[in-house]
């Protein structure tokens, strides 16, 4: 999943415009990966409603300034690996792309290709039997194993989420089309239940009711990033609330509050919420980012930044600002809150949850303005460098 996929067209999966390029193309782009991200961020697709460019991407800019290598982050898995790994060796993107190509060639070499002129249903039956029976790929629950959301892990363990299986399925179809073996237009049915598996079908026989289950290149990428964002969000004490409201509720005990008097004034906050907030702040100050119970701030930030670059939903600006607040980047937080408010001008909010979120945005904006108006507010920021690699990652 190249970072260049941020600018990918919204063509159907299985078309020539797949997520992954050939190994030679990836090698040529490796040195330009981080610049591709910045180019997409500064393109017309990524500007806000106010007509100006979005503020800086704090995580990427700070990593570059700290000397942490991110040039090799050509795909989501490689970038996340570079954020949390202590190894100086980048994820072997080329090797995994070659492994993905081997799946397509193996389909031909193993004799699973149906006879010429076979109907699309027969072709997909053969492909399903090859991928899910012969190769043994299976679907797993994302909530129980974060590795299911990464392509390299899915290729290695032959076990992954429906999103990763859809990606593998689409790349196989793309390769087979390049070989001239497909004489029909195909789509991929994406299952929204807990047990279904992605499966191809003839687009000409598509029904209107199937449209919500058809994944395009951009919609698949957005789904992957939103799942990663929710999985690694550091504040998840209230599962019935939104991620943003959880983060704002934790602000009562975050780095914006100096001393214990303000924390004591919010006695209605549950002990679990207080523990989650204090745990997240403690990990931030120590430079520790990964925790099984309370998420991973770096990877949550990275997912938010990628979603912002995709210009998918203005709410991503708001969510990103909430994380920046907890990291002590108050100026950047205010800029993103302002961008969000500009983007939402004129849009009615009738949903009760949306109204609560708007109130929380106003509360957070007022809090940040008060912090920035205070003399010497810079001295209240945690002294630890959030972006450097810590010797104690877990």
Keywords:
mainly alpha, 16 helices
Structural overview:
The chain has 394 residues and is mainly alpha-helical. It folds into 2 domains: 165 residues, no CATH class; 148 residues, no CATH class. The chain is 49% helix and 4% strand. The protein has a two-stranded parallel ribbon with strand order 1-2. It has a two-stranded antiparallel sheet with strand order 3-4. It has a two-stranded antiparallel ribbon with strand order 5-6. Helix 10 packs parallel to helix 14. The longest helix has 22 residues. The chain is elongated. The chain starts with 22 loop residues before the first helix and ends in a 21-residue tail after the last helix. InterPro entries: SirB1_N. It comes from Triticum turgidum subsp. durum. It holds the Pfam family Transglut_core2.
Task: Catalogue the unreliable spans.
Answer: 1-51, 66-74, 254-268, 383-394
Q: What structural class is derived from the secondary structure elements?
A: mainly alpha
Biggest pleated-sheet summary? 2 strands, parallel
Topology as a string of helices (H) and strands (E):
HHHHHHEHEHEEHHHHEEHHHH
Radius of gyration: 22 Å
The helicity comes to 40-55%
Secondary structure tally: strands: 6
């Amino acid at each position: 999943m190249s970072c260049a996929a941020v600018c990918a067209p919204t063509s159907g999966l299985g078309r020539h415009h797949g997520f992954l390029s050939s190994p030679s193309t990836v090698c040529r782009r490796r040195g330009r990966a981080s610049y591709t991200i910045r180019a997409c961020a500064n393109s017309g697709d990524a500007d806000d409603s106010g007509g100006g460019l979005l503020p800086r991407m704090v995580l990427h800019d700070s990593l570059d300034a700290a000397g942490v290598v991110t040039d090799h982050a050509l795909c989501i898995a490689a970038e996340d690996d570079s954020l949390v790994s202590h190894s100086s060796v980048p994820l072997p993107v080329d090797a995994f792309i070659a492994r993905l190509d081997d799946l397509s060639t193996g389909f031909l070499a193993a004799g699973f290709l149906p006879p010429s002129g076979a109907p699309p249903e027969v072709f997909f039956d053969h492909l399903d039997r090859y991928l899910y029976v012969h190769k043994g790929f299976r679907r797993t629950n994302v909530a129980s194993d974060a590795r299911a959301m990464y392509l390299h892990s899915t290729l290695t363990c032959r076990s992954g989420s429906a999103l990763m299986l859809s990606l593998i399925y689409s790349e196989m179809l793309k390769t087979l089309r390049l070989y001239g073996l497909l004489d029909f237009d195909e789509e991929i049915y994406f299952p929204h239940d807990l047990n279904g598996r992605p499966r191809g079908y003839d687009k000409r026989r598509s029904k209107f009711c199937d449209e919500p289950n058809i994944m395009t290149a951009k919609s698949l990428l957005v789904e992957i990033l939103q799942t990663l964002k929710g999985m690694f969000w550091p504040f998840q004490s209230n599962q019935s609330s939104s991620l943003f409201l959880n983060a704002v509720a934790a602000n009562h005990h975050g780095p914006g509050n100096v001393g214990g008097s303000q924390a004591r004034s919010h006695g209605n906050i549950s002990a679990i919420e207080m523990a989650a907030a204090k745990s997240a702040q403690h990990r931030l100050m120590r430079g520790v980012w990964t925790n099984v119970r309370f998420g991973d701030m770096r990877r949550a930030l990275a997912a938010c930044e990628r979603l912002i670059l995709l210009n998918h939903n203005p709410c991503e600006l708001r969510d990103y600002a909430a994380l920046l607040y907890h990291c002590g980047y108050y100026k950047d937080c205010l800029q993103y809150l302002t961008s969000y408010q500009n983007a939402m001008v004129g849009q009615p909010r009738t949903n009760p949850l949306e109204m609560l979120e708007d109130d929380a945005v106003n509360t957070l904006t007022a809090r940040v303005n008060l912090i920035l108006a205070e003399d010497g507010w810079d001295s209240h920021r945690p002294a630890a460098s959030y972006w450097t690699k810590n010797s104690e990652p877990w």
